[in-house]
Structure formats: C-alpha cells, structure tokens
Amino acid sequence: MSESEPGAAADPSAPVDPHKEVIRLGRRVERLERTLRQLEDIRDTNARLLDRLRDELDAERNRSMELLLSVLPPRIVDRLSAGEHPIADRHERVAVVLGDLVGFTSIAARLPAAELVDRLGALFAAFDAAAERLGVDKIKTVGDAYLAVAGLAPADGEEPDAAAHAAVHAAADLAFAMVDAVAEFGPPWRVRIGLAVGPIAAGVIGTRYAYDVWGDTVNLASRLEQSSEAGRIHVHEDVAEMLAAEFITEPRGSVWLKGMGEVQTWFLLGRRSDPGLHGPTEIGAAPATATATLRGSPVR
Description:
Structural class: alpha+beta
CATH superfamily of the largest domain: Nucleotide cyclase, GGDEF domain
CATH class of the largest domain: Alpha Beta
C-alpha cells in the first residue's frame, strides 16, 4: 500500500507506538491541567470580586440606612424598606411640641458662623437625646425652631385615652428637657415652647424623603409658641387638664391666637414631684398668693 496522503484519516489497524502515545497523552493532560488552573484562577478572581462587590453593596446599604434613620423615624424607614408607598397616616390624639430660640436673629448676627453652628448643633443634639430617651419623634428643625411629636407609635393594645395621656406626659417632659438644655447654655440663649394635643396628618413627601406633620394641632402649637414667654412652656387648656394630676400649672387667661381667636391657655411650671417647686396653681382655682421662682420666671 502506498504511503498515506497528508491529512488522510489514520488507519485504525496500524500499530500504535506506545512511546509516542504516552508523549501525546502527557501533552494533552498538561493542556487540560493548564486550562483547569486558568479556570480556577478565573473562579477565584470572580469569587474575590463578588465578595468585594457584596461588601461594597453592604456598606452602601448601611450608609443609606444611616442617612434615612437620621431624618426619618425607624418605623417609617422599615415601611419604606418594605416597599410601602405612599406613607400617609392619620393620628387622632398626639402631642405636638414646638420650641423656638428667642432673639436668635440677633445672636446669629453677633456670633462667628463656626461658633453659631457649633452651639446650635449642640443644643439640637441635646433635644434629640431627650426626645429619643422619652420616645418622642423629632420631626424636623426649621432654622432655630424644633418640632417633635409624641404618640405617633402607641404601644400595641393601648387604649386611646391612655395613649393620649402618655403622649402628652412625654411631650411635657421633653419640653422641660429643652428648657433645661437651653438654660445650661446661659445667656443669651433662651427658648419659648408651645405644646398642643389633637389630630394630625403625617407622611413622607418629596424625593429626599422628608417626614412631616400637618393640621390644626401643629398650627395651635406654633401659635402657642409664638405667644409664649422666654423660658416657659405655653399650653392649651386641654393639655393643662390632662397634666393637672402630675404637673404644676399657672393660668395665663384668655389669649388671642392668630387664626383661632380667644383661647384659654396655661403655663406649665414643672412636675409636682419636683421638690424645688412651690406655690402650685390648680386648674379652676385662684392663683396662689405666694411667689416662687422657677427657671428664672416669677410665679404668683
């Protein structure tokens, strides 16, 4: 038989040279091992890349969560994370606290910007700490004003009246904590506060996820704050009645509030359990004749 042409199929009946076959198989095994090592390297590289991407994703999620928690109540963040949209709620009886720094415009004009921001930040941080400790939701700051609401998340199964009373008490304690925090700073820092109870609407608005509250109760707290006095907590008669058993109050009488007309209002002076308080004034009773000094304000 003539010699096979190049490219012709090998004759299966031709004898196999064991030595050459071993060399051929060895080379094939080497190629397969080299390919396997390359695939393993690619796998390890992809695994490291995947781990790094997962770590970066977790870090971004944590940063995003921290940012959301800095501007929204945790339960609202949970609802947003669960995909709920829109966030819109109606609350029938909550307590709204609004505090405003007295004479802030003149203070801001006198202080260097860095010192102003530092002092205002420290004050609001103290307010935030007190709100968190008392279970009150900080809503927002607007300039030098601080808005918070108690009673947005009553305990499961809690009766509405009990929840409302708990909210008003927490709001009152926050208001006194705010007065004390400002007093520690000393002159010229002073705060006046309004506190009201009633229904509000609440929800998340805007692309930056701002949680806000609206309604006549918010407006009433604002009017009470505007007509209050430095270092004092100004409340509507409803609030004074709800707090009368545990707090000392002073009647202010009839006050005209913009958009609301004549309203009976009171000043909160402190808890009855505070041994430093004197001359309590009861709702419906004539003012005490004794004079005491509370947080720098004369009480008759």
